[in-house]
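COURSE: Structural Biology Practicum
ASSIGNMENT: Worksheet 4, Part C
STUDENT ID: 0417
INSTRUCTIONS: Below are two proteins. For each, the amino acid sequence is given first, followed by its structure token string. Answer the questions at the end about the second protein only.

PROTEIN I
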Amino acid sequence: MKNMKTRLETSRDLSVQIAEAIRDAIIGGSLIVDERLPSEAELAEKFGVSRPTVREALKRLAAQNLIRTQRGATGGAFVNRLRFQDAYGQQITTSTLLLSMNAVDFETAAEARYALERACAPLSAQRRSADHLACMRAEIHRQGQPGLSDESFCASDVAFHRALVDGAQNPVLSYQLAGAIEAIEPLMNMITFTRRSRSRIIALHGRIADAIEARDASAADQALEQLADYTIALAREVKAARKARKG
């Protein structure tokens, strides 16, 4: 805690600055996993603020899973071990906001999403477990069920590709691709679902799963490329139809 920045700017939210200072100390190694933070009173004195301000900063850190609180005589706030899976939600939310706020066009999003996924496929072909394959097969089966709603089909589509990515068994890739799969994919589905052929998508999913099971990275890449081309073609059809309706 000795190297922690404690001088605050009066023009910015004080609790945000305190949370940032503690976060930087965790990232920088000044605070290690399971270490107990100073008490609220000690932090308030260190930063020259009130205890409610410190409490708000700690709430921010807890919301980011950077710290946990324990009650009792040996309680307090402790540095958490942040897992990649714990950060998925933030990655997905940030990706969704960036896409919507910056009006990224469909083809740009599709290009990014499939380029990342195709880069992941060879690793998945080498390393996938029986559970990853079982998940992919289960989602393919689900997608073929009569009466499955568009919403449920889209959710299954995301789950299928999530299993493909997780099959690479690389937590850094899974984290980075969380935004691509779970943010971009639903947005793409919203645009194309009215014109797509479920049977064609299911067939491509089946080819991808077969290739991953056979550890054939080239075949998996080819099927993903065809899925990307089909998805982009659908989006162009939707765009053209909308333009035609507007006259």
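PROTEIN II
(use this one for the questions)
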Amino acid sequence: MSVIQADSLCKSYGDTVAVEDLSFAVEAGKIIGLLGPNGAGKTTTINMLTTLISIDSGAGTVAGFDVASSPHAVRQLIGLAGQNAAVDEKLTARENLELFGRFYKIPKDTLKRRIEDLVETFRMGDYADRTAETYSGGQRRRLDVVAALVANPPALFLDEPTTGLDPRSRADMWDAITDLAAGGTAIVLTTQYLEEADRLADEILLIDQGIAVARGTPEELKRGLENDVLDVHFPDERELDKAVAVIDDELISSIDRDAGLIRIPVKSNARSSLSILRSIDDADIELVDYQLRRPTLDDVFLELTGDGPSAPAERSTQ
């Protein structure tokens, strides 16, 4: 049985459709990653399923409770870490966690042990007794995510949980999310780090303009592209522009000017790559290096969300 269920969810703001006919299910112990460009409808979807905004049509349930008709029951069964920190700036980390624990009606002794476990697990001991107003952005973000875990809820919604965290803290968060799923928590995750979704998600739902354009495991989505990817790096923008003029526009999937990088999908054979590289060499264009590789989720994202070749290769997926 699914812990989190979305059935034909729809939400509009005036003439703007934010989410259209979106359906998915998350079983206990599973993680679904919602990916898509800015404004795709990911946060709107989470807000509907966590009772923060109303559903225009369709339905959502958490542990069998309807989001629209039983919002109080749903709120007792979910943890939510949104994009904006929900902590009280005047309270310490421990005091904030205690406040969230009282909201969930956790017994005092149980709550105390739970808070200490969370402080240790997420390495918050150095600042757990300072007020949140003194925290860095990363520390505040970590506290916001940890607050969603106080009640060990059966359903957890994480909207870009690792944004602003340093690499070590991000790795700690990945481990914690994996442990939560292993313990039976159903998790909905949005992230701007596609490698994060690749590592954590059992299933990915790619959304564009409120509509699901692809779904599957990370490996299924990557295999679906059929082509390998040729990455060609150039020493400066001048050489990159010369290469763009030589290569057929329809062959280029993306350009990252900051990195001096052109990405080109190619058939899974050396001849296609050699032909492109030969055209660059014949035009006396200097390059730094090149690599033929298997597709990543970045490539899936670029291919299926319809972004043109002039857009940067590194994109936020908020």
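ANSWER KEY EXCERPT:
Q1: The two ends are 29 Å apart (CA to CA).
Q2: The longest helix spans residues 167-182.
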